[in-house]
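go over both lines:
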Amino acid sequence: MQYDITIVGAGIVGLATAYKILERKPDIRLLILEKESGVAMHQTGNNSGVIHTGIYYRPGSLRALNCISGYKQLLEFADQEGIPCKICGKIIVATDERERATLPALLERGKQNGLDRIRLISAAEMKEKEPHVYGLEAIYVPYTGIIDFKKVAGRLAEIVTQRRGASILFNQKVLNIYTRQGHSEVITDREVFSTRLVINTAGLHSDEIAALTIPKLDLRIIPFRGEYMTIRKEREYLVKNLIYPTPDPNFPWLGVHFTRMIKGVVEAGPNAVFAFKKEGYKKSDISFHDLGKALGFPGFQKVMFKFMKFGLAEYYRSYNKAAFTRALQKLIPEIRADDLLPGDAGVRALAVGRNGEILDDFVFAENEWAVNVLNAPSPAATACLSIGDSVAEKALARFL
C-alpha cells in the first residue's frame, strides 16, 4: 500500500502528531511504525507524569510557547476522554540565600510566560502546603498537575486507529530510508513501505533516523538515565504533592525532587547519569554501538569536560544510597535512607551540538522527504498536542 505519511515512533509526540494530522485531513493515508511491541514504551512511559507549566523556559522559546498551548490542550483532552488528572500545584524551594536570590528572576520568567497566579511564599506558608519541607522561601505554582502520560498515549493510539483509520504496526524497526521520484521507501527489519513523507518522532533514536534523510547532521542524541527511589508507604505522608529545588542555571537538570504521582506513589529523584545504552534502564545495560557513537562525537566530549565534576557527583549518588539520601534531605530533612526503596528509571534524550552546546529548545529539521523532531525535551509530554500542531502544519504543507 502507498501511504501519504509514515511516522517513525509511537511515543506520545508521534501519536499526538498523527492525531493532529488526521484532525485536519481525515482522508490522509497514515502509518505509524514502532520498533517495540506497544506504544509509549520509552521516554513517554517512564517519566514522572508531571503536567508542566512553562515557568523554567525562556520566554518566546519553542519550549515555552508549546508548553503553554500544550498544557491547555492536554487538560481539555484529558477531560474529554475521561483520563484522570489532578492540578495539585508545586513549590520550588530555596534552601539557602544563594538559591533565594535567584527566585525573583524565575518568578518573573514564569509571569512572562503567562503564569499570572504564581507567587513567592514565605517559609511559614510553605510549611502549610508541605509540613515536612525545609526552605527559606519558595515559589508556589498552582497550575502544575499530575497525569499518567502512558494512558494519554494509549488513548491517542485508540483514536487515530479506531476512529480515524490510521494504522500502527509494531515490531517494525526502521533500518533505512531511500528517497526517489517524489516518494520514499521505508525499510524495516520485516517489510518495505512506500510513502510520500516520513515524520521522525523516534526520540532516543531520532538522530539515527534523521541521518537516513539528512546525511550531515550536526547533533547527536546522548542518553542520560534518571534513577528514582520510591518512598515507603508508611512514610508517604512526608510529601503532599510536588516539591522541587531551585534550579541551578549552570546545569541542564532540575535536580532531585519529590513527586506524588497520579496513582498515589511518591517518587524521589531523579539523578542524571550518562547511560551506556540508549535504552539503558539498568546500570549494567551497555551497547558498544551507542557508547561509541556518543563518546566519538566531538560535541559530547566537550560536554563531558565541562560538566565532569557534576557528572562524577551524579554517578556517586547513583551508587551510594547515603549520598542520594543526603541530596533529598536538603528539601526534607526527615527523610531517611530506609524510607527509600528502589524505583523505576527513565532515559532522557539529550541533544548535543557539534560545538559542545546542549540544545535546550525543541529542534526540527526538514527537507523535501522528511520532517524530523530532533529534540523534544521536557515538557514534550505536556506539550505533545501543541508539538503535534506544529509538525502537522509542516507536514500538510506538502499536501496543499
